[in-house]
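haha ok so turns out i had the wrong file open the whole time. this is the CORRECT one, sorry everyone. sequence first:
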Amino acid sequence: MFKIIMMDDSQVGKLQEIDRSEHIDLIYEMKDGQITEITTDHECSNWDKNTLLDIQERYLFELHHGGVAVGAYADHKLVGFGVLAHKFRGINNDRLQIDLMYVSKNYRRQGIGTRIIDELMKEALKRGAKQLYISSTETRSAVSFYKSAGSVITEEIDEELFNKEPKDIHMIIQL
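then structure:
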């Protein structure tokens, strides 16, 4: 059982409770507008100290600039969270980005990510967005999750986000 709540900056320390580790057996790569599969065998560890600090800084930056965060709690432990960025993007300035989205390893495939993304979609709609923009890690688990939430590969790549993460799979969800 888990509870979904709106998070604030006082909960930034809770982000360390997330276990992002996973075994990665398949990644995707975009080539000439087509997605290709690449078999791999990689263990993604939990956050190191520097990565956690970067995640916490992004979380705080978005909240201090008008973004929102949604968290999933199980027995007072943060087991998942997502952040809706504050900045509108796209040619029509009608896209909001899901900036961060994580569910702890032992809590995946229980509907937590779906509940979080549903709350972020509702918030994006309230703010006037017509689409969610997702710059997803290239792993099967992440891309499959976003596809199950209704995302498709976007033809309009956000240059700023692409330059930050050129290996990411860039997708949108129509709201």
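The radius of gyration is 15 Å.
again sry for the mixup
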